[in-house]
Amino acid sequence: MLGLMQNWPLTVDRILEHANNAFPHREVVTRAVEDGQLRTTTYAAVYRRAKQVTNALRERSVTVGDRIATLAWNTDRHLEAWYGTMCMGAVLHTVNPRLFPEQIAWIINHAEDKILFFDTTFTQIVEKIAPLLKTVQLYVALTDREHLPQSSVPIVAYEDFIAGQSEEAQWGGFDENTACGLCYTSGTTGDPKGVLYSHRSNVIHAMAANQTDVFGCGAKDVVLPIVPMFHANAWAIAFVAPMCGSKLVMPGAKLDGPSVYELLEGQKVTFTAAVPTVWQGLLGFLRENNSKPTTLKRVAIGGSAIPETVLRAFEEDYGVEVIHAWGMTEMSPIGTTGKLLPDHYEQDHESQIKAKMKQGRTPFTVEMKIVDDDGKRIAHDGKAFGRLLVRGPSVARAYFKNAGAKNERGECLETCGYFDTGDVATIDPLGIMQITDRAKDVIKSGGEWISSIDIENFAMGAEGVANAAVIGVAHPKWDERPLLIIQPKPGASPTKESVLKFLDGKIAKWWTPDDVAFVELIPLGATGKINKLALREQFKDYKLPTTKAAE
Ligand code: AMP
Q1: Angle at alpha carbon of residue 450, lines to 447 and 456, rounded to 5°
Q2: Ligand 1, residues at Cβ distance < 6 Å
Q3: What pLDDT score does 449 carry?
């Protein structure tokens, strides 16, 4: 017997419809990319202009399933392009501008994007990649005619693109499983893989992400997503805020301590979210200027493990609650949050800090378990660690175009139907997870991935190099920076300068190792692979030359 309730597909157009109906006058404040000035709009205006985007896209023959790329900061215009694309059933592909231009071109070609919206700060990237792009028919700069940059590529100003378009447009009306958003992960090996969110997965995830023990936002909140929309949907905040009527503050291109503080205070922000690096910038600024946030209540920190100093500074010095979040692009991205349980509230402060350092527990809609190498579930006793597997309606089943398929159905799942996160973790009897290691050895620098293997592969080509390994070394500003470890060929004596010169132009500038160390022998594991655990142990107290400068 079927239930007798209305069939109301979970599509994201409902979110902006709701914002327009319930909170039309709630503000969206943006720090303009062009001049850093603040401008204010409302959900009602975003709604109307997103409809204009839809009509402009339809005029260019964009239809359901077509991919539209953005190379853009968090702004009101990005939000309009985002909803204008998704709500008509096209797929919004957020591209990470911090990638190497060739990688960006590869990703856009793989996604077969038709139109590219970009911020003027990225004009040089667009000029570099345009000759390589095979499917992009139109370049739209997210600005007005007055600020349109001079360029070798024909560019249309966003304001001209939507000008004169009707504010009426048909949205929705398609299956809730229709593709909605696309975001590529830069894996450690091989090409980036596309995570293809559906409308249903995004709506469910946004509701899960806004449970009280996750972000817990409401109409009285003022929300500042510093985490970019190109990082897994700004951790769902681009959906959560219009869903619950929070005022939205979009930081544009300025994510430094003083700019963030100005927004926190000037806009009376109550909730914000970003990777640890951003918070180190803000906390440094607060200390130097003897300032403190006066309206901020909660801060979500994730993307890499939270440094204890950051946790303590927010909670102990400023009385701001830290929500430690773990997740990944493939999980939309929220997997766990470190909100305390009743048991913890009976413990002392130090025990609570210890509990908050852990990655936390799952919200409803995420299930996780740890398994051994044979896929057998291991004890959730807080001691045994194993591969962390997850499942749920907002967890990836397959990658775009079946990249990295593990079975004949093209899925990226284990035989038990779970997704392997690539992380290694413990889970304690309270259900609280702690990451102990990464199966992959990527280096997380400022919330971005640096592939150790890529650098190693190039470094192996430098003169006099017998073997090369790259590990992440703790860094006060960027969390981690790469250290390149070289085993010279017998009789050869490569230098730091010669190796780095060789890497120059082969890898992105910000991937360049902060230092090069030379060893007699790089330790190998049982299967002939570099034993990174041993190397990390050997270099655990290593101080990078860049560390001093950042302190
Ligand atoms: P991404 O898909 O770029 O968001 O990266 C996901 C990966 O980042 C996870 O698989 C973890 O390895 C790492 N990560 C994310 N959040 C945390 C956290 N709170 N603590 C430790 N590692 C994290």
Answers
A1: 165
A2: 185, 232, 302-305, 324-329, 333, 359, 421-423, 435, 438
A3: 67
Tell me which architecture the domain covering 441-550 has in CATH.
2-Layer Sandwich (3.30)
Site to substitute for ligand 1 among 233, 324, 423, 451, most atoms within 8 A of C-beta: 423
Residue type, 244: C
Q: How far is the CA of 327 from the centre of ligand 1 (A)?
A: 5
CATH fit for domain 367-439, picks 3.40.50.2000, 2.30.180.10, 2.60.120.380, 2.30.38.10: 2.30.38.10
Bridge partners of 504, per DSSP, are 507
- Cα-to-chain-centroid distance, residue 183: 9
Classify burial at 229, counting beta carbons within 10 Å of its beta carbon; exposed 0-12, middle 13-18, buried 19 or more.
Answer: buried
> Atom 15 in ligand 1: which residue has the minimum CA distance?
303
Distance 338 CA to ligand 1 centre (A): 14
Whole-number Å distance, alpha carbon 337 to ligand 1 midpoint, is: 12
Residue identifier of the C-alpha nearest atom 8 of ligand 1: 303
Question: What is the Cα–Cα distance from 359 to 434, expressed in whole angstroms?
Answer: 5
C-beta neighbour count of 7 within 10 angstroms: 5
Task: State which H helix or E strand residue 425 sits in.
Answer: strand 419-427
Residue spans of beta strands (DSSP E) within 176-240: 179-185, 193-198, 222-225
Write out the CATH class of domain 13-365. alpha beta
Are 295 and 269 within 8 A, CB to CB? Answer: yes
Domain ranges of the chain: 13-365, 367-439, 441-550
Show the CA angle centred on residue 117, arms to residues 80 and 107, nearest 5°.
120
Cα-Cα-Cα-Cα torsion 422, 423, 425, 431, nearest 10 degrees, comes to -80
pLDDT digits (tens, 9 = 90+) for 373-404: 789 999 999 988 788 999 999 999 999 999 99
Please tell me the pTM assigned to this model: 0.85
Interval 87-128: pLDDT, tens: 999 999 999 998 889 999 999 999 999 999 999 999 999 999
Contact 155, 140 (CB under 8 A): yes
What interhelical angle do 13-22 and 76-86 show, nearest 10? 120
Kindly report, residue by residue over 41-55, the tens digit of the pLDDT. Answer: 999 999 999 999 999
Nearest ligand 1 atom, CA 305: 20
Ligand 1 atom having least distance to the Cα of 422: 10
Report the C-alpha gap between 220 and 55 in whole angstroms.
33
Q: What is the dihedral of CA 235, 240, 245, 250, to 10 degrees?
A: 20
